[in-house]
């Protein structure tokens, strides 16, 4: 039944909720708050817990604040810590840059890197730093004229048109200004973010892998951790102070704000503040979405990741140069695999689907108890239920087709050529600009780099695996063009045919060069078909299948975009709360405390680890191979000013609400001074994109004193400490390192 409430009415109700309620936290330290919600937090309670800052110290829309020091770095977060553009982030965030600069002779991914002078600072290929200049609620601008009675797909297109127009109007590429307009609370509101993008980023000091990723995958997401996961980078701009690509003439960027560092340490129960760029959460999703992800999408991803990792590891065993090249890719895939596996286990243990269903049953009773509510909200859950039934009916088939399209770079390029050719043959008004001349030129320019990064063996093995998975699909989800090729074969005969076909597609010599592939981009659909090449034919078949999937996917997306905002609004109204928005890679603030947990029966996890624990884990073999110099420092008790009661602190736990993307986020004390750097979450807290686990979920941080100890005593990068504003530093440290407080005025703590 169509709602008799207009979208304008919904916005008025939402605005009233924003005024009436503080941002909702269903658990003690749950919440990833937008900067403009910071002033609405319970500051009296925060002061009791140790907060010494004012709201405007963290976020000041009319001036400089801590928000200006916290930035996006590649897939993580970083923070400025000096007036000379020095940046601190995670080793694993900077790892791609280390690997891309490596050779078999200089494997910086393994050995780390030290620039003894600024001239030696290593360009971080493909990296940029993105600074949030401004954020603004533009809900009224985006949703003006958008009604709940509009057809779902028409409504989605109208919103997207407004979003694109606002982004284009605000962007200024020459000045490095980028604008993104993003939905909050599933589209109940919209925010405009203005960013400054700085493309010249360089590595200053990175510890070796057996410090920066000590414990490797076995320790990943686990506690206790003993990881020195940090890297110093520096951001540069042109001599005129504007964003510029790498040049030896560039100069260090002068940030509006940089963080002070505290040597006073942390203790259990201390208030811990985190600001960063969390990637994605889906905590307000309906039970149908949770069940789909838990039982269909995530298990499919897990199986595919396992096979990819095994294939890449095998490929590197006989080729040392390839092993160096693949180490970052394998690390990323392994991290994703453990995350997905742990998330599925956590979601099932916590019974999230049934809890969502119980909440929705209560919502349905609340809706049905009032005719006005039933008119407004009564269609939400039945409509979403139907949408997910339709999605699930072909989900395994559709996921497999979409994965096949990405199995090989050659396939992706050939598929683009096919779509571009078809686009040229449409009436001009119906053409997709992304497939036009500019899009073709962008792809053409990327061909040499794409070919240089290819791993044909891994591509061939993955495609063979996916063809085998197609054979295992239920009868009602078989892929027609796959069955046409292999359906008459069984057992080993089909396996051999699949392997041979994958070889014909991936190892195609005719299109193994940039020139050969570039020629495809100029052909018509008829010319492509006349080639009778397995690569082209298969790309066309996959492209045709994706075209058939697209209308269903578009209809599904439009349906959930139409109804999810109302579900969030209805749940908000029923509970009398105003929920913080799901994370979406925008700047967020969260707070918690230093606290251990009970991982399972009869075990208690204390919230601190020390250097002695690093030594205890040493096996002499990767990933527990402690560097000899670090062992020497430990044996000599040569800890400098970084020890506490004869121990060097390494890592600690907090209850701060974080997720992927927060890697590299600063951990601040109540005075706004940096005491640590986020690098992981614990295994028991996985699944936190769908729910927050107050009892067991923990953020894991490197103690800033371990960062300074490794840089100074181990890495030979002690000269960097002279750039830092270090609070509570022992007098001996100031004398030994020559540290002088920076002259730039930037502190905001009272």
Give the total of domains: 3
- Report the helical percentage: 40-55%
Class computed from helices, strands and strand pairing = alpha+beta
Radius of gyration: 27 Å
Number of strands: 22
Unreliable stretches: 1-27, 742-750
Largest sheet: 11 strands, antiparallel
What is the approximate shape? globular
Proportion of residues in β-strands: 5-15%
Quaternary structure annotation:
single chain
The end-to-end distance, rounded to whole angstroms, is: 56 Å
Q: Number of helical runs?
A: 27
Query: What is the averaged pLDDT score?
Result: 92
Supply database-style keywords:
750 residues; 11-stranded antiparallel β-sheet; 3 domains; alpha+beta
Overview of the structural elements:
The chain has 750 residues and is an alpha+beta fold. It has 27 helices and 22 strands. Helix 14 runs antiparallel to helix 23. 43% of the residues are buried.
Ordered list of secondary-structure elements with their pairings:
Layout: H1 7-20, E1 23-24, H2 43-49, H3 55-58, E2 70-73, E3 76-80, E4 86-89, H4 91-100, H5 108-111, E5 113-114, E6 122-123, E7 129-137, H6 139-143, H7 152-170, E8 177-184, E9 189-198, E10 200-206, H8 209-212, H9 216-219, E11 231-237, E12 251-252, E13 261-262, E14 271-276, H10 287-317, H11 320-349, H12 352-368, H13 371-377, H14 380-393, H15 395-405, H16 409-424, H17 437-452, H18 456-471, H19 480-486, H20 491-506, H21 514-520, H22 525-530, H23 534-575, E15 578-579, E16 588-593, E17 608-610, H24 611-617, H25 628-635, E18 649-654, E19 666-668, E20 674-681, E21 699-703, H26 704-714, E22 726-727, H27 731-737
């Amino acid at each position: 039944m169509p709602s008799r409430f207009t979208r304008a009415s919904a916005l008025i109700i939402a605005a009233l909720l924003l005024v009436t309620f503080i941002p909702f936290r269903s658990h003690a330290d749950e919440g990833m708050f937008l900067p403009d919600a910071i002033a609405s937090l319970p500051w009296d309670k925060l002061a009791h817990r140790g907060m010494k800052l004012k709201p405007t110290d963290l976020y000041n829309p009319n001036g400089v604040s801590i928000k200006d020091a916290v930035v996006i770095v590649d897939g993580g977060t970083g923070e400025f810590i000096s007036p000379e553009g020095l940046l601190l982030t995670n080793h694993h965030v900077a790892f791609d840059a280390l690997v891309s600069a490596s050779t078999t002779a200089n494997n910086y991914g393994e050995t780390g890197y030290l620039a003894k002078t600024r001239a030696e600072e290593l360009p971080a290929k493909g990296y940029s730093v993105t600074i949030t200049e401004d954020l603004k609620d533009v809900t009224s601008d985006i949703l003006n004229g958008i009604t709940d009675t509009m057809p779902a797909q028409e409504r989605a297109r109208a919103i997207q048109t407004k979003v694109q127009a606002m982004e284009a109007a605000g962007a200024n590429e020459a000045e490095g200004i980028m604008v993104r307009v993003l939905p909050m609370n599933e589209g109940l509101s919209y925010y405009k973010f203005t960013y400054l993008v700085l493309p010249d980023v360089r590595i200053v000091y990175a510890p070796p892998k057996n410090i920066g990723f000590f414990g490797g995958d076995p320790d990943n997401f686990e506690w206790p951790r003993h990881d020195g996961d940090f890297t110093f980078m520096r951001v540069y701009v042109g001599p005129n102070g504007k964003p510029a690509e790498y040049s030896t003439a560039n100069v260090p960027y002068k940030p509006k704000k940089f963080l002070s560092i505290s040597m006073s340490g942390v203790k259990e129960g201390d208030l811990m503040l985190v600001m960063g760029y969390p990637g994605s959460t889906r905590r307000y999703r309906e039970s149908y979405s949770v069940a789909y992800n838990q039982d269909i999408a995530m298990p499919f991803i897990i199986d595919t990741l396992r096979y990819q990792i095994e294939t890449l590891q095998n490929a590197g065993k006989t080729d040392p140069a390839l092993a160096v090249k693949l180490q970052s890719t394998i690390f990323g895939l392994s991290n994703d695999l453990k995350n997905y596996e742990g998330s599925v286990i956590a979601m099932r243990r916590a019974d999230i689907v049934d809890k969502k269903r119980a909440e929705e049953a209560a919502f349905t009773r609340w809706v049905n108890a009032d005719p006005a509510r039933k008119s407004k909200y009564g269609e939400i859950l039945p409509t979403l239920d139907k949408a997910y039934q339709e999605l699930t009916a072909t989900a395994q088939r559709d996921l497999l087709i979409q994965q096949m399209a990405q199995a090989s770079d050659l396939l992706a390029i050939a598929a683009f050529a096919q779509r571009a050719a078809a686009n040229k043959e449409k009436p001009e008004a119906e053409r997709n600009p992304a497939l036009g001349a500019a899009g073709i030129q962008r792809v053409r320019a990327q061909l040499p780099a794409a070919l240089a990064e290819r791993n044909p063996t891994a591509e061939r093995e993955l495609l063979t695996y996916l063809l085998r998975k197609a054979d295992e699909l239920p009868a009602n989800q078989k892929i027609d063009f796959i069955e046409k090729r292999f359906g008459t074969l069984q057992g080993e005969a089909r396996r051999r045919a699949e392997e041979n076909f994958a070889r014909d597609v991936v190892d195609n010599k005719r299109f193994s060069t940039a020139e050969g592939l570039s020629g495809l981009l100029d052909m018509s659909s008829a010319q492509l078909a006349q080639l009778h090449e397995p690569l082209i034919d298969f790309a066309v078949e996959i492209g045709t299948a994706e075209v058939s999937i697209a209308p269903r996917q578009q209809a599904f997306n439009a349906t959930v975009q139409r109804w999810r905002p109302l579900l969030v609004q209805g749940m908000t109204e029923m509970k009398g709360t105003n929920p913080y928005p799901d994370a979406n890679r925008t700047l967020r603030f969260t707070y918690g405390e230093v606290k251990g947990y009970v991982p399972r029966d009869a075990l208690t996890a204390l919230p601190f680890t020390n250097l002695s624990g690093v030594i205890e884990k040493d096996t002499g073999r990767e990933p527990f191979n402690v560097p000899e110099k670090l062992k020497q420092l430990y044996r000599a008790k040569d800890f400098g000013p970084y020890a506490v009661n004869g121990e060097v602190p390494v890592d600690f736990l907090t209850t701060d609400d974080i997720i992927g993307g927060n890697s590299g986020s600063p951990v601040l004390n109540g005075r706004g001074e940096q005491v640590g750097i986020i690098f992981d979450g614990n295994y028991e807290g996985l699944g936190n994109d769908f729910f927050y686990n107050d009892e067991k979920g923990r953020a894991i941080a490197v103690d800033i004193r371990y960062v300074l100890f490794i840089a100074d005593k181990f890495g030979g990068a002690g000269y960097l400490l002279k750039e830092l504003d270090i609070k509570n530093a022992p007098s001996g440290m100031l004398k030994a390192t020559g540290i002088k407080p920076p002259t730039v005025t930037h502190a905001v703590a009272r």
